[in-house]
Amino acid sequence: MLSHDAIWNAIDRLAERHQLTPSGLARRAGLDPTSFNRSKRLGPDGRLRWPSTESISKVLDATGATIDQFMSYLPANGRSQIPDGNFPPQASNIPLLGFAQAGAGGFFDDGGFPASQGWDVVEFPADPSRKAGVYALEVQGESMMPLYRDGDVLIVEPGAQVRRGDRVVLKTREGEVMAKVLARQSPKSVEVMSLNPEHPNRAFDLADVEWMARIIWASQ
């Protein structure tokens, strides 16, 4: 039986194989760039939203994939089966942006996923790069010392569950972007600890936070 998660996972995997984000795949297929965003997969009332057969047909046409290739991304016995020879090897390029640029508008969708053609790319091992929507931020300046130095690259996974003690990237609605440690999160506020002891800890009303994403890997 086809599940909601399995269908969306197949779309994410197809995007990855063509070195695209879900937003990039939608754009290539001539769809609204937000069509495949994580935030669009559930309705405001919590009901599941499914991709239409028309949108699936359009992404197949745009990528040159067959319906059999698309179906191969659906899990069988708990595993996705990718037929050998049908696609190139797993790509290891992921979108890259500097922290200074990350505060500007247009680079992220409303869920904190990459949503612009203005990104650079960086090559990384398969483990972090195979996750859908993952992107990289290059540290600029010394504000994150001693943990992260100028030029280090942080791999960020939007949509991943965030827990107390996780290292996160947070963007405020005013455009400020920062890497911190999550200290506390409530339905109304977020408290984060600074990585650099010379910088103060911060607290925000949840309404003032545009998105927060977990740091899953760092190149140092």
From TrEMBL:
CDD domains: S24_LexA-like (cd06529). Keywords: DNA-binding, Transcription, Transcription regulation. Gene3D superfamilies: Umud Fragment, subunit A (2.10.109.10). Residues 95-216 form the Peptidase S24/S26A/S26B/S26C domain. The keyword Chloroplast does not apply. One of its GO terms (molecular function) is DNA binding. The keyword Lipid metabolism does not apply. PANTHER family: FELS-1 PROPHAGE TRANSCRIPTIONAL REGULATOR, PTHR40661. This is Helix-turn-helix transcriptional regulator. It comes from Aliirhizobium smilacinae. The lineage of its organism: Bacteria, Pseudomonadati, Pseudomonadota, Alphaproteobacteria, Hyphomicrobiales.
